Structure formats: structure tokens, C-alpha cells
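User: Sequence for Arf-GAP with coiled-coil, ANK repeat and PH domain-containing protein below. C-alpha cells please.
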Amino acid sequence: MKITVDFEECLKDSPRFRATIEEVEGDVCELESKLDKLVKLCIGMIDAGKAYNAANKQFVNGIRELAQQSTKDEVIESSLTKFAESLQEMINYHTILFDQAQRSIKTQLQTFVKDDLRKFKEAKKQFDKVSEEKEAALIKNAQAPRNKQHEVEEATNILTATRKCFRHIVLDYVLQINVLQSKRRSEILKSMLSFMYAHLTFFHQGYDLFSELQPLMKQLGGQLDQLVVDAAKEKRDMEQKHSTIQQKDFSNDDTKLEYNVDADNGIAMEGYLFKRASNAFKTWNRRWFSIQNNQLVYQKKFKDNPTVVVEDLRLCTVKHCEDIERRFCFEVVSPTKSCMMQADSEKLRQAWIKAVQNSIATAFRDKGDDGEKLDRKSSTSTGSLDSGGEPKERSLKGESALQKVLAIPGNSCCCDCGQPDPRWASINLGITLCIQCSGIHRSLGVHFSKVRSLTLDTWEPELLKLMCELGNRVINQIYEARREELGARKPQSGDPRHEVEAYIKAKYVDRRFIRRPSDEELRTKVVSLSKQEKRLSSSSEHLPPRAPPPTPKLRPGSNVSGQSVKSADSGIQNSADGSREMLAATPSNNSLTDADAAEPPPMPMPATLPPPSPCKEMAFYEPKEYSPGLQLFWASCARSLPDMAEALAHGAEVNWVNTEDEKRTPLIMAVQGGSLVTCEFLLQNAANVNQQDAQGRGPLHHATMLGHTGQVCLFLKRGANQNAADIDEKTPLAMAVEAANADIVTLLRLAKMNEEMREAEGPYSQSGDETYQDIFQDFTHMASNDPEKLNRYQQYEPQRP
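Assistant: C-alpha cells for Arf-GAP with coiled-coil, ANK repeat and PH domain-containing protein:
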């Protein structure tokens, strides 16, 4: 606040003047305190900035060192070098910003405090002193007696001189006050404006710098997507090779070495042998031997040059050595020397002796072709790793999932703002989103939207099919049905975030743009869905029977067969060997196909297996009340995901219970409909996987009764309680045994065994057995992508009117 003092008022030395002076002095004292504090804070900020710059320089140097270490990868080296240069420029800009802060804030304000405020303090001291002198002169003049003329004259002269001095000092003091009050505004504003312009320059330079860098960053972003896909593919390849090698029988490693004269790199045979030294101590050393180019050589380390034992195998012979203390020894004798070697077993010794003999014979037969094989590239010791075929595609990640989802009409742009090329999705809504809208969807909570990346996350087959069943066009027809009617503007790409957020909340949370159906429209919809369910259920009843499939293939070492099903009601072995044998079973051509693909014709029931219990008949009848929950109920059975999404949008409870139909839920009806994707959609929208009907049967019970192997696998993965019993005290396992469904018996037993193994490993165990994970992935893959392979025990169709 600017306080000025009137010059006329100061000559009067009135109480108003004194009050003004007191107010000014307090204000200047507070100003000095605030300026001192600001200068100290500025000094602290500058010191912290210098420390930040120093640490940032070290970080940039680390990036440069990483780039130098990656010289073999041109993309990483060039990208990191460019990033390091840009970050170094930003450090330089920071340094300029802190220098400007020091000049504009620290130096300029310190000068103002030291010069102008010091002058004010000096003027205040003189004013206080002359004020006291004037007060004393007034008192002395008032006390002078009238009868003492000399004292009166003296007091009068002193008072006159003091008043004259006071007027001079007080005018100077008032001038200093007014000048200070005027100057403080310009000094403070000039200092701060200079500092703000320094910030403007800093951010403008940073913007220009990163604008130039943006094309490179976009290019790298595109390459990164492909790199993620390539990395995932390489990982799957490595896992497949690892699995292939792990499944091999290594109990007889001695027989794995074989002589191969046509090896690509000219190495006919290689492996470890003990070699007896030629020194006086006759020590034995383990070395890596190989037969290559008609020579016997060995080396201690990979980088060592091979030491030649025999120059030309045509001039030597090989024989057993039984006259020394060590076992499995043999000797290679040449005209000039002999070499004693020891294998790890008798079979390996025979293999090496045979290899040397074959090399000798080959050398004599092809003595002119010794150098032809030098440039070949792979050896027999590693070549077998490449056999075994391509790994099976289990889950999709990166470009594959992105391409499949974006191929759906309407999915090439964000569902909410229309930005092209979205990279995110809401899996419970089945829509694609840009990065800004995905962040807003996350803020809504998972009970409204579950967000997943289309390029970085792994996509299960059933979840990918769910995305392909819905899409932006279908969902917007539901959630934006009345948008134009209400005059609501749909946000565009680039609109402020708060506008987009308000629209998304109105769309999905408040559901403001949904068209509520009338009672008659709802009734028509429900009746139509019930008729659609009947047509779907009857479409497979008149197809010719299929021939029985071959016996299921098992993993190596497995003893699970059809006989295990007959004895499925027996107790599970607790031994580790028994557990591993059961876990080794591989799903093959088994059980009822998922209705998401074309339903295969029913198979005749094997004569040796007991028939399963028939399902409850599903008949449509006039309900007491039509509701969105009833629409969801019949849409789940009719496998109509758009109608299910519409029912949920209209407020249907995902766990709605039909009290007029034995308390069945939409999830149980989805099991009856036979669609794996329908079940997945309900589970993604928080359906209870363990909710039971009036018979005490949950979704797992019904999937087991119907032989829907893919659904059984899905429910077990989602935490279904396989120990739950219905009113007849039957668990899903008991039903599967009774129906002689080998696949579902295997799945249920594997899940139970995996649970027991995790409990045995402790409360912090999460992963369970790897073989269990692999088998469930196999079933998941087949249920979604190769449902015809799950076609073994389709014994009957549920009776429907």
C-alpha cells in the first residue's frame, strides 16, 4: 500500500502527521522484513537449482555412457545421443534462468534494501533526534520565569533555532518517505517482471527444442510398438524352446553325442573329456574336445585358440585303455605321440571311439574335401534346439491385438472424442480410447470402466473376442442415443480436458444420453430374445453325428488315460510324483465346443459311459414384470452382447436373480447359451462367479453338467469354488465323474491340486505350478480359437422347447 505524507501537514507537526509517520515506519519495517526473506528464498532456490543442474549433468552423462555402450545398436545409440544433447540444452537453459533470477531478484532487491531503505533509516534517526530537541526546547521555553529576562531570551532563541532545524529535517524526512514509497513499486515490479521474462524465455526455448525433437520421438514411438511385438515374439520363441528342451528325456545324456560328418560348421563331434597331461605328474584336466577338419583339437576357454592333438586323423589309431586305474579311458595314437583321454561313461567312450574311427574312414574317402565345411554355421550340439516347430499362439500382445480391435467398424477413432489411432481400450465396455480419455475412464473407477493398453498389455483370446463383438459404434448407439436430441455437443480431439471429462461422466456415470425403453418396447425386446435363444438352441439338433475322435494326446511321462476318468472318484495322490504325473496331462481333442464358433453336431454317447443328468428345461413364460434385468437374463442366453450391454446401460443388475425361474442369474443363462464370450463379458462387469440358483448350483456346476470345457476353464481361472455342493451334495467334480467327462475332471483336479500346492508352499505363494498354468492356457486358446478341438464329449443338448 502506498502511503504519502503531505508537506504542509508535516510543518504543523499535528497528531495526524505523527500517526501517518508511525504508519509509514511500520510499513517500511515490514517491507524490509519481507524483502530480506524473499532474497534469502531466492538464494536458496538458486543453490537448489545449481545442485539440480549438477545432478542432471551426471544423469545426462550416464545416458551418454549408455549410448556409447550400445554402439552395436544404431537405433539406441543415435536416439540416446540425441536425447542427451537435448537434455544438456535444457540444463543450459536452466543455468541461464538461475543466473537471471540472481540478477533480477537477489542483486536488484538487495541493492534496494541496502541503499534506499538505509537512507530512510538515517533520515528517521535525524528526525527522531530533532523531534526530541524540539520537545525539550518547548518545555524549557514554557518554564522560563517572566521576571528573569535573560532566561526568557535564551529559551526563546533556542526554541527559534530548534524549530528552524526541525522544519528543515522534517521536510527532508517527508521527502525521503515519499520517494521511497514511489520507488518501491518500480523496483519490486521491475525485479519480478525481469524474472518472469526469464521464465518465458526458458519455456519458449524448451518448447522450440522439443518441437524439433518431436518427429524423432514419434518415429521412435512407432518403432517401439514393433519392438514390443518383436520382443514378445522372441520371448514366446524362447519359452517354446525352453519347454521343448525341458520336455526332452535327459536321463540318458550319454547317448546324445553322435558323429555327424555333414555338420554345418565342420565340427563332426564335440564334448568334454579328461585329458592326461604329458608332464611328469600325469595330471588330468577337463577340456572341450572336438573333431573338425580331419583333426582332433581341444580348448580350455572359448576365446583360446584350439590346441591340436592330432594333425591328421588318417595317420592315427584309437584304442581302449583298460590297464590304468581310471575308468572309461581311451587313447589316440599317432606316429609321433599318443593322447590319453577319459569320458564320463562307457557309452560316451564308445561314442568318441566310433567318432574317431569314422573320421579316419571319412578322411581317407574324402581326403580332397577337407576344407569345404569350414564356413558353415551351426553345430550338432545346438542344432536340435531349433526343432520342435513354432510355439502355439496363446495370448496376443502389441500389434496383433491392436490390428484386430481397430479393424472393427468405428474402432479406428476414440469412442468419446474421435481422436484417430487409439491405443487404449475399456474392456468391460468393449470400446477403444485415446490416452486422454483412457485417463478419464480410469478416474471413474473400475465399476464403470476397466482400461487396458492395446499395445503394452497381454490380451487373452476370450477378451479379444469380446472386444470384437462390441465396439465403439455399438456402444455409442446405446450411450449416445439421445445426445443430438438433447443438443449435447460431443467433444473433439484437442478440447480442454475438463470439457471431455464432464462429457464422459455425463455419458457413462449419469447415463444422460441413454434412451429409456417403454414397457411395451422392453416386453417386445425380451420376447424377441427368448425366441432368438430357441432358434440358436435348435440349430444343432438335426445335424449328422460325428465320428468319435482319437485318443487324447498326453504330455511325455504322463499316465493319465481314460482309465483315470473311471476312477476319478478316488482320492488324489499327495506325493510329488503323483502330482506331477497328473499335471503333465495335455488337453487335446476334448469336450463340448464353445458356441462362439459354429456349433458342431452332437456326438453319439459312448456305450461304456453313463449318461449325464439332463438339464432343466428352459421355457419362456409371461413374467410378472418386465425389467432391464430380465432383458439381460434372456440376452445372456441368446448370446447377444449388444443387448446385454444395453440392459446394463439401462440399469440392469449384473447379478440379477430371476425368482420365477429357480433363482437363475444372467451368468448361469450365459452358460446355458454356451457362449464363452458372453460369460467373459458378464465377469468383466463384476458378475459373481459363485452365485447359486435354487438348486444350489453355481455357473461352474452348470458348465460341468453341459460339458462346456471352455467355460469351466474360464470360471476356474476367475476363482470359482469347485468345492461348492448343490442341494444333492454334488460338487462339480462329482458331476464330471458321473458324466465321464475326462477333460473337465482333469481341469477340476488340476485346479484343486494347484490350490493344494500353493497352500503347501506358504501364504505368499501366488503362481502355483507352471504345468497347471500351461494346461489352462492350452484350454483357453482352444476354447477361443480352435473350439472344434474341444468336441469329444458332446453327449447331449439341454432340452429346450
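The first helix runs from residue 7 to 12.
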